[in-house]
Inverse folding.
């Protein structure tokens, strides 16, 4: 053995190889010592595998959550900017549709990753009731102005 080297615990195979050097009547004692060791090693490996699998699942879930948050933020900022642009260009009914329930529902879908049927119905109702303002017909040249 090398000095200052930590001694590692023996594996089940190493224990069996050392017991194999002894006479055959010691075989039953070797098997009794080997079975618990192999069971401990197996349980340890299975626990390691379960921990690695859980860690991968946690990483994937974290990535999914962060992607939803970022997508929801970009979508909300984009819809707000679009609503401002539409409001400035004299289209308040379309700006209201961007700012209304559709913004809330889309952000809810991406950030919370859930959607309810009531949310979809609210968006449909908002779009159905949002109508463009009536534009009066153009007057013919030479006709009296419409009052």
């Amino acid at each position: 053995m090398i000095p200052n080297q930590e001694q590692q615990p023996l594996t089940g195979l190493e224990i069996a190889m050392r017991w194999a050097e002894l006479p055959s009547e010691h075989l039953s004692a070797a098997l009794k010592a080997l079975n618990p060791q192999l069971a401990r090693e197996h349980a340890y490996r299975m626990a390691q595998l379960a921990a690695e699998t859980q860690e991968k699942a946690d990483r994937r879930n974290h990535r999914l959550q962060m992607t939803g948050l970022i997508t929801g933020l970009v979508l909300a900022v984009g819809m707000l900017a679009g609503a401002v642009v539409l409001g400035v260009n004299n289209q308040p009914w379309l700006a209201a549709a961007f700012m209304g329930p559709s913004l809330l529902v889309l952000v809810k879908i991406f950030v919370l990753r859930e959607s309810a049927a009531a949310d979809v119905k609210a968006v449909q109702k908002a779009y159905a009731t949002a109508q463009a303002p009536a534009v009066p017909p153009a007057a013919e040249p030479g006709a009296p102005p419409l009052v």
